[in-house]
């Protein structure tokens, strides 16, 4: 993370804490990217399932609960699916918001740290 | 193992470093001034760097272990939630007088149909080749408790990992500072020699 050119800026405990915070935020950012990818896939799958349900004309649908496929009346499946879609969509929104917040905090810290250390510190992804 | 308080993000002014260890993980001490640090430890630059590198390796090993535990817990939680879903479905069907018909996997690619009527009890797999029969209500309570415990453990684990990563960062920064200080010393010596 730091380059060894022997320059002078002293690292205070506050600087160290800022660096630590940046590290934590960066980790969280990558975790969020992975979680968002999964959430998007989940949303898509639910959308596909919903469309399949509309197209099919069966009255009894096999709905997966855990490891088994339970036979359920179509209306119940529709209700369940709607709820799942709503939950998934809220999840995705929450994750995207957290990601924005994390990026904003990281940008703030970059300003502070680059301001003090300039070239002696590297906060970019390699 | 004594658990130090988990306040690693806002240390009090009197102890600038916060906690000395967390659940067995030693904290990396922050170096205020490199020269003073080297004098106090009595080590020369290379030994100091070697010591810090070794500390870094130890931290990495603990990190691997914690990450594995985290993966396990993250897999366990959706499983428990699925079980709760099934128990809830069985309980809902109980009142209606209808049987629950479900297709389940007998072997890879082969499914069979089951008819579950008036489910009063379920069997829960407790691990260690033990399966116990519970009433639906008991099963629901047990699964909910397990879910809570798993989520709580995960929270603690995540906090442990954050603490650990902070210590890794502090150690990396210290290594860079000791190295830079050394480079600076050599340059100044070189400059005085040449004048």
TrEMBL record, chain A:
One of its GO terms (molecular function) is unfolded protein binding. GO terms for cellular component: cytoplasm; prefoldin complex. It comes from the Eukaryota. This is Prefoldin subunit 4. The gene is LOC109709015. Belongs to the prefoldin subunit beta family. Pfam families: Prefoldin_2 (PF01920). GO terms for biological process: protein folding; response to cold. Binds specifically to cytosolic chaperonin (c-CPN) and transfers target proteins to it. Binds to nascent polypeptide chain and promotes folding in an environment in which there are many competing pathways for nonnative proteins. It comes from Ananas comosus (Pineapple). Heterohexamer of two PFD-alpha type and four PFD-beta type subunits. PANTHER family: PREFOLDIN SUBUNIT 4 (PTHR21100).
From TrEMBL, chain B:
GO terms for biological process: microtubule-based process; protein folding; response to cold; tubulin complex assembly. GO terms for molecular function: tubulin binding. InterPro entries: PFD3 (IPR016655), Prefoldin (IPR009053), Prefoldin_subunit_alpha (IPR004127). Pfam families: Prefoldin (PF02996). Residues 1-16 have a biased composition (Low complexity). Keywords: Chaperone. The keyword Transcription does not apply. Signal peptide: none annotated. GO terms for cellular component: cytoplasm; prefoldin complex. Residues 1-22 are annotated as: Disordered. Belongs to the prefoldin subunit alpha family. PANTHER family: PREFOLDIN SUBUNIT 3. Binds specifically to cytosolic chaperonin (c-CPN) and transfers target proteins to it. Binds to nascent polypeptide chain and promotes folding in an environment in which there are many competing pathways for nonnative proteins. Heterohexamer of two PFD-alpha type and four PFD-beta type subunits. This is Prefoldin subunit 3. It comes from Ananas comosus.
